[in-house]
Amino acid sequence: MTMFKWFGSSKDSSEAKPTLNWQELTEIEQLDQVETDSQEKPVVLFKHSTRCGISRMALNQFERSFSPEKNYGLFYLNLIAHRDISNLVASRFQVYHESPQVLVIHQGKTIYHASHGQIMGDHIAELVNQLV
Description:
Elements: H1 3-7, E1 23-24, H2 30-40, E2 43-48, H3 53-65, E3 73-78, H4 83-92, E4 101-106, E5 109-115, H5 121-131
Parallel strand pairs: 1-3, 2-3
Antiparallel strand pairs: 2-4, 4-5
């Protein structure tokens, strides 16, 4: 295993795919779906930089430890490919842009967000379970 594969590639690569059942955000209009879904269930949105090793490690750790027992929405945003959507997420859900970053959106509002080493899948799963 090369060091780049362990830390994440330094190039924008499509070979590194997430392992959870993510809905990938690729269109600005999908943010309406995020907001609508969040009225019925908590929505988790992970913003990932495919060029950042720290972001890759945070995503891998999140995927290993996130396993809520309840119904939830799960969205993934490749912010290198879709910086316009990332900027809109920041303004629409009133958070400062960071990467990596995870948001929990419930009833149209951000109720939790974390970045870098503060992204803990088990903690977020616990929060999601309490909201449903």
